[in-house]
Design goal:
This protein has 347 residues and is mainly alpha-helical. It has one domain. Helix content is 54%, strand content 7%. It has a three-stranded antiparallel beta sheet. Strands 3-6 form a two-stranded parallel sheet. A two-stranded antiparallel ribbon has the order 4-5. The radius of gyration is 21 Å and the shape is globular. The mean pLDDT is 91.
Length: 347
Amino acid sequence: MRQHTSEAVDLVAKIRRKTAALNRNNLTRTQAYLDFFTRYPEVEWALLAHLVSRNGGWNMTDLRGEWLPRLMSDEDIRSFFAFLERSNWLIFHDAYAQLLLYAEMKRAGADLTALLPALGVSRFMVPIWRDFLYSQDSQRLSRALIINEQQYVEQRVVRQPFYRHQVLQSFAFLAQSVLSLNQVLFPYRERPGDEPLQLIGVSINNFPDVDTRINVGITLYKLLFDDSKRLRSILGWAKEIKHTGSRADYWPHLFTPVRPIRFEEPYQERLSGARLLPGRPKLYSPPLRKVWPDTVQPAADGVDWYRNERWLRYLEESEPIAAINETDYATGLNMVEAGLRMVALFT
């Protein structure tokens, strides 16, 4: 199929329509990643994207949950949601089109990588996909997609003045980092029947730095795929528990999707480690559909990010980020409550 034939133009348009239809919100794109991985498990990045997208949904609902409305103004909350939604939308817009083109290449048994530029995909990815068709090197493809997507949002979100000043440099973003709400978590059961679920993941301590985000992505990929038993458990959980955006999806012993009658004022601590204090209510973590409507995103403008070959080194190497587990996560939650207590003392 030549790049400018009517058949090629039709295929590009079809991919764009399907990508846009599934990019309505965090729930639709998260499910789309999982569905794709189920059909094409050799594209391991799709499962990583599904799990990271779940975490993006949890971050979105945190903004309307138990704690952040006590720490952030409504204006800051809306700005932070806009930042999260724009980043998630852009990654899906770019990456899912590539996945759909790969599916068509599998169906047709043909190399259609020449169509990637027509989909707005960086020239960085063209030889990567071409090589993958023959090598099926899942790790190399995953690393390349991690590099590409982080560079894609770097240009279109992180470097944009509004997000840099209203979100990334704001007190709210710094407070969120300090309060340990910046973690990416994969739930799983070490043994059948384990409750609560175990967690493994990383904390992102310098989000504005693109090298940090790439290293985080590669570390998460390794945590996901380097242990086959844990991988099976994570995947089993992902298929069993439909993504709602509520943190009750993975820790229902602490979180509830049911809105309380009213916020407790002043806030009273609920947690002792990873357990509720006797008689205390669960933490409110709403479903995404209840707190955030679908948005209409502007076009994904920008030029091709690939200008410097130094990024190629991440195809072979990285600087691993220390992993965290459920104990670290619970410690972070307790730190949030301590932070709320400190805020109350000064307000």
